[in-house]
Write a structure and sequence with these properties.
Length: about 375
């Protein structure tokens, strides 16, 4: 773990900020941040480090541009729209870096230029790559200005020939004037294989498509979810709610442990469909998924007298809402497990718990380093109802 990393692009690209410091120093810096926002509620456990801490990113999004006649891929400089070409990233899965190298080579052979926003010309905007950490399967999404392009099927076949572990190549049309890689309603066409790949996590199988949410560091996600399950201490008769359930990872892991019922709540319809498909894929019948805003749905469930023993929530960086926390209190779960990607908003929400949810106390705070090389960190927090 002490091996020093070095990236010559550190400080220029917008990808990471800690990559050129010793990993032990990075963990110390993150722990200090955790204590700054959270130590007043409960002692903060030592950070669980990531293994691996390089080459862990199984989701890679590359911006495309031109350098003379050659297509280049990379990332925007932080705070700007200037493309920094990247040929090899320390944090990316090496298989993804190899696929990007082949895309650059094949683009020249197939006369496939990058898209120029200013001139509204060219074709290839982004390349999105997903790697199944446990299965080794790869998905490549070619995000283009016009969707399917001339010679696209031959391009996809050539890409698979170079990398036989590629199971899916899709073309996605993005005509929006936006920095978003894949708009929610973007058209998609399969050029090779299927529209998804499969990965495995904690004994379950999950579909991953171009639009699916799936942790970029699946190795560490397994550890994070194990921590969350240990905090929950699930029992056979439990009714579990997983708010902000995404594609169902936490919900399905909980359901596979033999609880009575799991209810996943997620606002994104694509994620709900993925979660339902993942339940079918794993033969799980005790989990259901509801497309709804988590705060509003929890309020409805509380008003209807829905029973809940354990509540998981894994909100976006902005955290939960006061409406959500008030409804959670009315449901009276014995245990709340809050998975956060932002210690500052977690601290804000815990202040609400301490002030307004008098029956609850914070009993455990476990940081998990999901994103080595960056300033981001995940935290699992145990909130229990006083007996």
């Amino acid at each position: 773990m002490a091996r020093k990393r070095y990236c010559p692009l550190a400080g220029r690209c917008g990808g990471c900020s800690y990559v050129n410091i010793d990993y032990r120093d990075e963990l110390l810096s993150k722990y200090i941040l955790e204590e700054k926002f959270l130590k007043s509620f409960c002692s903060v456990s030592p950070i669980l480090p990531s293994n691996p801490y390089i080459g862990y990113r199984c989701k890679v999004q590359a911006v495309c541009g031109m350098d003379g006649p050659a297509l280049v891929t990379g990332i925007y400089r932080r705070g700007s729209h200037k493309l920094i070409p990247v040929r090899d990233c320390l944090l990316e899965d090496p298989r993804a870096s190899g696929i990007l190298a082949s895309v650059r080579t094949l683009a020249r052979r197939f006369s496939l230029p990058a898209y120029d926003e200013d001139l509204d010309s060219g074709e290839l905007r982004h390349v999105l790559i997903r790697i199944g950490a446990r299965t080794g399967e790869a998905l490549v999404a070619l995000v283009t200005a016009h969707g399917d392009f001339r010679g696209s099927h031959d391009f996809a076949a050539a890409l698979h020939q170079r990398h036989p572990y590629i199971r899916s190549v899709v073309a996605i049309r993005n005509r929006e004037k936006t920095s978003m890689v894949i708009p929610a309603d973007a058209e998609q066409k399969v050029l090779y294989g299927s529209d998804h790949i499969i990965d495995e996590m904690l004994g379950l199988r999950f579909r991953i498509s171009a639009k699916s949410f799936y942790q970029v560091n699946p190795y560490q996600a397994e550890l994070l979810y194990q921590v969350a399950m240990n905090m929950a201490e699930l029992r056979e008769d439990d009714v579990v709610i997983d708010a902000y359930s995404g594609t169902g990872t936490i919900a399905l892991i909980a359901a596979s442990m033999g609880v009575r019922r799991v209810i996943g709540i997620e606002a994104n319809p694509d994620a709900v469909r993925d979660a339902e498909e993942n339940a079918r894929l794993n033969g799980i019948a005790n989990a259901e998924f509801i497309e709804a805003d988590a705060s509003k749905k929890l309020k409805e469930m509380a008003a209807a007298g829905t029973r809940c023993d354990v509540l998981f929530l894994d909100p976006p960086r902005s955290g939960a809402t006061e409406e959500f926390l008030a409804a959670a209190s009315r449901l009276s779960p014995s245990v709340i497990v809050y998975v956060s990607c932002n210690p500052e908003t977690l601290g804000r929400d815990l202040r609400y718990v301490r002030r307004f949810m008098k029956d609850y106390r914070v009993e455990g705070i476990q940081p998990v380093d999901m994103f080595p090389g960056s300033e981001h960190i995940e935290t699992a927090c145990l909130i229990s109802r006083r007996r």
